[in-house]
Amino acid sequence: MKKLALAIVLTAFTVITMATAQSNQKKYESNPWTLVYEGAITRNEKGKVNIHPVTYKLNGIEIAANVYTPANYDASKTYPAVVVAHPNGGIKEQTAGLYAQRLAEAGYITIAFDAAYQGASGGEPRHTDKPQNRTEDLHGAADFITQYPGVDANRLGVLGICGGGGYTLKAAQSDKRFKAVATLSMFNSGEVRRNGFQNSQMNTIQERLKQASDARAQEAEGGKVEEDARIETGGKPLYSGVASITDEEIANTPTDLYREGYEYYYRTHAHPNSTFLYTTSSLMDLMTWDATDQIELIDQPLLMMAGSKADTKYMTDEAFAKAVNAKDKELFLIEGATHIQTYWNPVYVSQAVEKLSEFYKTNL
């Protein structure tokens, strides 16, 4: 009976995910900017929020970004601005773009960018995921957007989502151009890569550091890091993460974060530039890094938001407690939301945007 019930669940899951994947494919193909979130701009119109694809150089790497301007934008006027950092594995066309658009609707000039080495941005090897790069991405986005016509450089905010939230906490420690700092469903990449999700891999830290070191040695010896060949000669993985996943594997994933994450990134909001892969050698940097290290340097206003049912909430709680010098800090719970649901669920997104608008209005 249990096997029959599981088979029925898996069949239903497969039908639903196939339908949503096909629907998303049409959405991706039909949108001129390949935006995959609900309510995405499909054309620029006078008097409405508009989107402007841009590129800029950061340490010799070309960064791809989208700037969103408010309705009736006038370059001769001045506006507050917000930098939006995407989740791990994410890109500007997904939830980062959704929040950037919604904040532009609230009157802010916003920028959603692809991290260096990821998405449509340049950099080799692809999917390198080192904390210092992700932090520098935020500094670079601030460099660019503060020079954008109409932006008041003295009213610059930042929003980091998931892994982008952890990197936002790090960037804000030193970058005082960010006058108001917010995170959503913050994910401390260093802690998780080191200790495992919910501290589940504490007993394999040294083994995984050895694997990362071996991968770097292999790269130094000329081993190619290619997306379509995760295992190179000698059997050492040069990529970690998940390249693809079956419906059955998704359904059997025990944690909300990863099960719903796989659905989001590989089914309902899939985009060819988005991937769960990252270079194994990146773990040498990730595993020795922590978003909360020296977090006491943040003295700006701080808003941290998380779903009340998010299995990642413990990371927001840890960081919030350690941010002892943040001005007027606030922990805002989105009741009933899981981590991934804050990326797309209209009810939860609206709650987050309303809170963000209030926060930035007060502090910018």
Q: Helical amount among residues, as a percent range?
A: 25-40%
Largest sheet: spatial strand order: 1-2-4-3-5-6-9-10
Q: What is the domain tally?
A: 1
Low-confidence stretches: 1-17, 227-236
Global morphology: globular
By DSSP (H or I, 4+ residues per run), the number of helices equals 12
What's the order of the H and E elements?
HEEEHEHEHEHHEHHEHEHEHH
CA-atom Rg in angstroms: 20 Å
The share of residues in extended strands comes to: 15-25%
What would your notes on this structure say?
Helix content is 40%, strand content 18%. The protein contains twelve helices and ten strands. The longest helix has 29 residues, at 2-30. The N and C termini lie far apart (59 Å).
List key phrases describing it.
about 375 residues; alpha/beta; Rossmann fold; eight-stranded mixed β-sheet; two-stranded antiparallel ribbon; 12 helices; 10 strands; about 20% strand; disordered N terminus
What secondary-structure arrangement, pairings included, does this model have?
Layout lengths: L1 H29 L19 E9 L2 E9 L9 E7 L9 H11 L3 E5 L17 H15 L5 E11 L1 H12 L3 E7 L4 H7 L9 H16 L18 E2 L6 H5 L4 H13 L9 E2 L3 H4 L14 E7 L5 H10 L4 E8 L6 H4 L1 H18 L1
Parallel strand pairs: 3-4, 3-5, 5-6, 6-9, 9-10
Antiparallel strand pairs: 1-2, 2-4, 7-8
